[in-house]
């Protein structure tokens, strides 16, 4: 097995370690880095989007080009409808995981707009410009480009935290419906290295199938330990 000096992990709250008793010590990235005897670099953030994951990973590579050939990258896909937003008011990037949920006052506050402005914009996007299948195709294209950018120097492993779960659980704006995602399949990931957790397409579904007592919130410390073991076995295969 190749000896790595760095483990870079990026994604949403699942990859960040939310749900663990001790977030920084129990999350799978820390456990896996200990097994690999390398430095853990976790770039994940709660509410983060797939676009943010790719943007921040690209930025890290550009700033640490001398470290790339000694790095293992693990990217965790999240739900498609989250957005990577930039506020012109506050001059900073913000997470937009609540973009299509009603009464999203906290997001409006982070953007620097009114709730009415945000709702009107969200309704417009959903009605005219958002299509889940197109978003998925775009995500795959972006992932392939990131993989090509890094892949000739380092190993990049993608997996799904919650991508592919469907969106019936989303608290949508009442007057709008999100188009169903009907073209998600692992086969679409054929041009990237995609890690399936046993026979499950994503981590959330794997946990649901193996832990009847789980409250369907965030992965626990034990769930993170199991994932780290499976990733280590996969990396060494």
- Return the string of H and E elements: EHHHEHEEEHHHEEHH
Number of helices: 9
Describe the global form.
Answer: globular
Total domains: 1
* Oligomer class: single chain
Query: What is the name of the CATH topology?
Result: Rossmann fold
Characterize the largest beta sheet: strand count, sense, and whether it forms a barrel.
5 strands, parallel
Question: Mean pLDDT score, rounded?
Answer: 90
Low-confidence segments, given as residue ranges, are: 168-176
Describe this structure in words.
This protein has 237 residues and is α/β, with parallel strands linked by helices. The chain has one domain: SGNH hydrolase (Rossmann fold, 3-Layer(aba) Sandwich). The chain contains nine helices and seven strands. The strands form two sheets. It has a five-stranded parallel β-sheet with strand order 2-1-3-6-7, with helices on both faces. Strand 4 and strand 5 form a beta hairpin. About 4% of the residues have low confidence.
SSE layout:
Elements: E1 6-10, H1 13-16, H2 23-26, H3 28-36, E2 39-42, H4 50-63, E3 71-77, E4 83-87, E5 92-96, H5 105-111, H6 115-129, H7 132-151, E6 155-160, E7 193-194, H8 203-210, H9 221-236
Parallel strand pairs: 1-2, 1-3, 3-6, 6-7
Antiparallel strand pairs: 4-5
Structural descriptors:
Rossmann fold, 237 residues, two-stranded antiparallel ribbon, alpha/beta, globular, 14% strand, five-stranded parallel sheet, 9 helices
Q: What's the short story on this structure?
A:
With about 240 residues, the protein is of the alpha/beta class. It has 9 helices and 7 strands.
